[in-house]
Write a structure and sequence with these properties.
This protein has a domain of about 70 residues. The chain has 2 helices and 5 strands. A hairpin with a 2-residue loop joins strand 3 and strand 4. The longest helix is centred in the middle third of the chain and has 20 residues. The relative contact order is 0.21.
Length: about 100
């Protein structure tokens, strides 16, 4: 059974911010490919929720997966509810010390 995907406000905000950032250097066609890649990744996650790497032992249900070589998706698996909660789309060029996903 596929897990349901839910977006946090921060996930939407960072998704849009990444698209806007990519719009500076990329063409519209490349941005559309990125959006399609995200859609495919979300479908794959709903079927295989533990495909990402666990972030640490303290929070084993918070996982990370690459959407693109520059953008990672951090999400939380809620096995009881059969839900995946998208937390943040993180540009890997940013300072990792600034990453707060809880």
């Amino acid at each position: 059974m596929a897990y349901e995907i839910s977006w946090t406000h921060r996930a939407w905000k960072t998704y849009e911010a990444n698209i806007n950032y990519l719009g500076i250097a990329w063409s519209d066609i490349e941005i559309k490919k990125f959006v399609t890649t995200v859609d495919k990744k979300l479908i794959n996650l709903s079927i295989h929720p533990h495909i990402g790497t666990a972030r640490n032992k303290k929070y084993p249900n918070i996982r990370l997966t690459l959407v693109h070589k520059r953008i990672a998706l951090i999400y939380r698996v809620k096995p009881v509810k059969k839900e995946i909660q998208l937390l943040v789309f993180w540009n890997t060029y940013q300072n990792p010390l600034k990453l707060k996903y809880l």
